[in-house]
Amino acid sequence: MVEHGDIRVVHRGGSKINSREPVVTNDSRFLLCASGERVKVFSTSTEECVHDLRGHTDLVTGVLLRPTNHLQVYSCSVDGTVRLWDFTDGILIKVQLDYCSVCVTCSWLMFDIVCMCVCAELFQLVAVHLPQSGDQLVEAQELSAVLSNVSSNPAATGFGRGVRAPPLRSPNAPPGAITYPKTDSPHLLTTQRKGGKNTLMCIACHPKDDCIATGHEDGKIRLWRNFNHKKEYTYTTLHWHHNAVSSLRFTPEGTNLLSGGLESVLVQWRYNQESERDFLPRLGSAITHIAVSPDGTLFCTSHSDNKITIIQSCVKVSAVIQGLVNGESVRTDLMVDPRSKSLVLNGKPGHLQFYSLQRDKLLYNLDIVQQEYIHELGLQQFEVVKVAFDAPGNWMATVEERKPKAAEPEINLKLWAFDEQTQSFVLNTTVSAPHEAQITSMCFSQAADGQTSMLVSASEDGHFKAWQLPRSAYEGPSWSCDFVGDYRGLAPQCCCFSADGSLLAVSFQEVVTVWSPASWELLTTLSQPPKAIRDLCFGRLGCSKYLMGTTASNLLCCWNLLTCSLEWSTSMDVSLLLSDPLTENMAAFCCQAESTDLFVFKPSEPRPVASLKAVCSGKVTRAVFAPREEMLESCEESSQWLNRSQLYFLTQHMLFIDDSVAMTPFYLLLGKHRKQENQDSLTRLSAELMPLPRGSLAIKELLQSPAHVLPSTSVLCSMFVESLLVSVADGSEESKHAEEEMESEKEEEDSEGEMESRTPRPEPASPGLQSAESAAPALTKAQLKELRRVKKLDHGWLADLLLS
Amino acid sequence: MASFKPTKIQVYPKLGEKVTQDTLYWKNYKAPVQIKEFGAITSIDFSPVAPHNFAVTAFTRIHIYGPFSQEPVKTLTRFKDTAYCGRFRSDGQLLVAGCEDSVVRLFDVSGKAALRMFRGHTKAVHVTDFTSDRYQILTGSDDYTCRLWDIPNATELNSYREHTDYVRCGVTSKLNRDLFITGSYDHTLKLFDARADKSVMTMDHGQPVESLLLYPSEGLLVSAGGRHVKVWDLLKGGQPLVSMKNHHKTVTCLCLSSNGQRLLSASLDRHVKVYNTTNYKVVHNFDYAASILSLALAPNDESIVAGMTNSILSIKHRKSPEESAEVSGQQRRTPSYRVFVKGKNYAPKQDDYLVSKPVKQHLAKYDKQLRTFNVSNSLDTALATWTRLRKPEITVAVIKELDRRGTLKNALAGRDEQWLARLLNFLIGNLVDPRFAAVLAPAAEMILDVYRRVVGQSPLVDRQLLRLQELLEREIDYQQDLLEVLGMLDTLFMVEFALEQTEDGEHRR
Questions:
Q1: Do A407 and B8 make contact, defined as CB atoms within 8 angstroms?
Q2: Which pTM was predicted?
Q3: Which of residues 388-407 of A touch B (CB under 8 A)?
Q4: Mean pLDDT for the stretch of residues A125-143
Q5: In chain B, positions 445-484, which contact chain A (CB-CB < 8 Å)?
Q6: Torsional class of A149: left (φ above 0), alpha (ψ -120 to 50), beta (otherwise)
């Protein structure tokens, strides 16, 4: 058997933590929130992620504490399962399968009854009674539809007080109606008034009184009372918000009502004294959810910028848990900060975020615009649209842009110097209106000497400008314009410096001009009509004489700069071309029929180094090579290109239609995944993705039950071996299958530590074998024969493993 | 919770020349004393001995001024015609001058009558100087000759007839009694040795030479002629070192600052340029009312004296240290000792727990109002008289911030006549300023939109609006003119560029 590496795409992190409201545990020490396919447990005091509850195979849509045991938590997911976890240890306790549900979008749990919205075509509120059984895997059969036609917005459904029959309120599909089933007959409360923009946004029920608070699109909060009697209800209106109220919550004692919205101000209303309000302003961005700890000491607000703020009783912010901000769009390219090796992209409005790829953690936000952010709909804000780093990481250039409706766009170019003392970037120069129109591309000279930094910015106004740092004798150094270039009045699209900084290539529609930055002489022009150049890229290291370009007419061209001629070209719909700064490899993403292929090649060689078909669905819009912390030593040809750096990319469109629960678009291409020679690689791949529903019971028990409830290992070992051996009917097949499953699970756990995991793997098998041999005299002849057969089989497999 | 971010006040680059040590040095002179002479001042010479009187040659007389007097301490009037080139001897006792009538006269500074008359030239004598042994006189004349005279005997020692045009400048070496250099309108400089009958070195300046200057070390010679100032290395046999072309009319006079670090050149274009003698870059520049014919610096640069064609003598004296200190820093009030030092000199001990006080954010008044969304009030604050007049950038920044917030219209609307007139006044003052135009133009449009209905109701506002319109029309005219000039320049440059290219092509062929 021969091993060779396989490359696969791994979802790496940066999931949303603000898709559902967070849950604070009873002792206020932990905060749980749904994050992609996982549930994350954060400490409320240190902001660290304590546990990562993995197990769901699709988006987690709801998290709730188990009312009868405050150390356990339920979570439900789109994959149709409800899981029970012990969050202090981070262990899965129970899985409840709910096969009939197609897609659970949100859920609430009351006294071991799961109520969930089920999306088939209509949203339906369903009560699921979870059976009380000791089994690990439980199938829930008791389903009862409570309400149909409910809003898909989870904030628009709330629970009131009551034990057996909770008044359940949910807005109907015609906007602005509240239904509340009392025992079995739902009442309908119409909130719609004529001519008002008062669509219902969120709802909260008072924990003690018969009172419902509803938040509306016009910023008003209405408190409804007396609704048990038909048509005799009364309501009062509270108005402070000027945009829609997005979240409402009563404190556990019912003394205060918390509300939040786009203004990013947390408003605390006194219940029954509504004229008294407290404010906590400037929380950063729009509030999407508010949660209160059961003892009322902590408030949590989750924000639209993927952030959870923990507030101590509305007095002061005590902690901020910040995930990767993934706003409407990534305007800046993905960049890697050469110093911290962190990923840099635009995050909060007017900020750059520095995101650690290794730790899946946001390091810090850098305020680029340095202006007060006004939370108002329809206001044109400054956005960071371009960012560039120079090779040693001493300088960073950013471009911010604001487009007022009627006036000229405002563009600022800012240059930041790295300050060794504060270990962050400090503003050095601001150039207001560096160009008359949008800046299309910007790059630093990659000269290795680090003496003279040069920045080139190309703009739609038909010019490209070079900026340099002259040493001025009287003040500190500041950047100034060194050269303005143009070519026949065409608008430049891309610019790119060669590896040694001696050449600058600027593309003007279908023409590539090559300039010498030393003398600003136009050296040569290259062109490949008929369509405009989309991407430009110089080769690195040994291939530095090549210039790569992609055109809008699906052509990938390679020019040789020594002969100034086209070396080769091929017809490919390349959506993105980028070069690895550490090797001579280049990566091209090709979009064909809804899926993207990845080609890795060297400009000097005609054959691609690696090609991956259907890396992901949808178009890849941004990608970056990030250097590895330590170099891998892999000898396989197909994965060698990943030895020094990893490739990260960002897809354009999600698999899921609903944007609010979309999976984060963050994938990692990770090198080296073992593939067996057997043809079952495909099934293995699917095995990785699916939880293992079948298989021998013993293995399942062994693998899935928590360690502290298991008997001692010596007892287990013989049981385990027996389960492997004794089944006579299809013993060998079964055992092989089971072992494979074991393997695949292991690989799932530590696919990155593949090198380490390979060596210890034979060990669990060999003690098993030894014990079987020592127990051999006690066995019958038939069993011995069987064992020999198995041993032979296993041995060959082991030998191959050990040899490799 | 982040704190409020104050409004960013744009810092605009300061226009005009940069303040350097040189500008500080050369600006540190008092306002000039101007004295009217009888004719164009052709020569100024400082006496080498204290109190450093200076002789001013103008028309038919030579005035000798004391260092601080505005009246001449002495006047020499015994010239039949225009006098030229009054020069002191190195001991300050004697003074020699040429004359249009070709006679060279030697005066005792304390007497009135000429001690000696040297006759022999046939035309006007423009150059006179003493040699360094003090017993001989060098003269140069329009009859193309230069001669050496013996003072005690009043006889001609030698005559050099090598120049082919007027000799208009000359210097003698201060270190060697036999060496002297003359410059002529035949574009040449000639170095003579009195021990030989011929010139020993000839340099071609390229233009009629107007002035010569020897460095104190006498290794370098500076010549001025036409628009060029050239530096020659005498030790390398008269090799040209630098050529400078910073004036746009003929350079008439050269002199060196007392420490030898700066070279000054005066020209008919009314400017005096100061060069750094290490890299020969212009470091400073001052101008006068008329074309300058002569320039001299007092020892230690105590005063700058310039004579002009309109017969005005301008004397600038250096400010005394007290005076310059008075101007630069007024007596500032300092906080009292107690306030200044209280608690500041206390050093925390090793195991002290340091409790830092939260830093209070200080906000300007308009920022406080912006924080609470009082947009109209913040605009009022920004339009307060002092801010509006002294710091228009603050007003503009607040207007910009309001525009960014989308509330500028609200802030502008609903104002009374007085306020509107004030705002329009501000616009009229700053709208055409290129630094502010991008912000103020949309604001002005917004004002017109808001108050369109009430135009014609207030004569005050209407007058302002008319002024604004007039201003804008004028500005548009300027812009059009500028565009035309730009177009013309572009064509000129293109023609020159094309010519260069064809020349290059021909060269290659």
A1: no
A2: 0.68
A3: 402, 404, 406-407
A4: 66
A5: none
A6: left
